[in-house]
Design brief:
- The chain is α/β, with parallel strands linked by helices and about 240 residues long.
- Helices cover about 30% and strands about 25% of the residues.
- It has seven helices and eleven strands.
- The strands form two sheets. Strands 2-1-3-4-5-11 form a six-stranded parallel beta sheet, with helices on both faces.
- A hairpin with a 2-residue loop joins strand 7 (about 175-180) and strand 8 (about 180-185).
- Helix 2 (about 55-65) packs parallel to helix 3 and helix 4 (about 105-120) runs parallel beside helix 5.
- The longest helix has 16 residues, at about 140-155.
- The protein is elongated, with a radius of gyration of 19 Å.
- The structure holds NADPH dihydro-nicotinamide-adenine-dinucleotide phosphate and the ligand O=C(O)C1=N[C@H](C(=O)O)C[C@H](O)C1.
- The ligand O=C(O)C1=N[C@H](C(=O)O)C[C@H](O)C1 binds near residues 103 and 140.
- Homotetramer.
- One of its GO terms (molecular function) is 4-hydroxy-tetrahydrodipicolinate reductase.
- Catalyzes the conversion of 4-hydroxy-tetrahydrodipicolinate (HTPA) to tetrahydrodipicolinate.
Amino acid sequence: MIRVGVLGARGRMGATVVKAVEAAPDMKVVAEVDDGDALDALSEAEVVVDFTHPAAVMDNLAYAVEHGIHAVVGTTGFTEERLASVRGWLAERPGTGVLIAPNFALGAVLAMRFAQQAARFYSSVEIIELHHNRKADAPSGTAAHTARLVAEARREAGLEPGADATTTELDGARGATVDDVRVHSVRLPGLVAHEEILFGQEGETLTIRHDSMDRSSFMPGVLLGVREVLRRPGLTVGLENVLDL
Ligand SMILES: NC(=O)C1=CN([C@@H]2O[C@H](COP(=O)(O)OP(=O)(O)OC[C@H]3O[C@@H](n4cnc5c(N)ncnc54)[C@H](OP(=O)(O)O)[C@@H]3O)[C@@H](O)[C@H]2O)C=CC1
Ligand SMILES: O=C(O)C1=N[C@H](C(=O)O)C[C@H](O)C1
């Protein structure tokens, strides 16, 4: 049995992870930690799963790596600088694995990969992400990650940033710019997690859309991550690497 500690255990994702791990035949929950609880409660854990807050996740990860506990992380807010810090910690603990995934839903991972493949064929691209109104961060980690992947594919193909004729705009009307890609964030009660990647070209558009209707959509990816991180020392970013896409 894989011994799992859940960080953010009373949150929307954490509570769903606790149930999913308890229902899995090959793992069990040994610690449920939330804001204000001592991290020492993780002493029995082989793997921690973190769905907390961008402001909390780095301290949690530092603790896990220092104690040789593998980590599966869904919390958002990972910049290149943060990833470099994690790699630095892991260099001191070569047997420990950390998997950070902006999105654990299979369809979201596929949508990102399809978007990467489509990127070089279109002159312009914009992203719309839509989430529940209790989400703390905008744009979503998934949209930011998608923008970076698409931008990289466009650069490799020698494409310039997409052009348009906007000369006057209300602040925010054209969205946020992530790596030269416009990202628009919608927040509404009733939504869970949704993303559209829109490509445009003279005479045609292509829209790739993914919808998570329920947080259960993330659970197969999280459980796969828990199993895989045990045999993947070092840092892995993105579930696509685990799925071998
Ligand atoms: N990668 C993926 O597939 C997915 C990623 N996410 C991401 O996961 C994160 C959590 O989302 P969600 O579950 O909706 O958020 P919630 O706010 O529902 O849950 C977060 C929980 O973490 C707790 N928390 C805050 N700080 C700490 C800490 N230092 N130690 C332990 N627990 C802490 C919060 O407590 P309190 O409320 O008291 O602050 C809360 O109970 C977000 O960054 C979100 O974007 C979400 C869905 C899928
Ligand atoms: O906060 C959420 O709900 C989600 N957060 C992640 C993100 O910011 O991309 C993953 C998913 O979109 C749900």
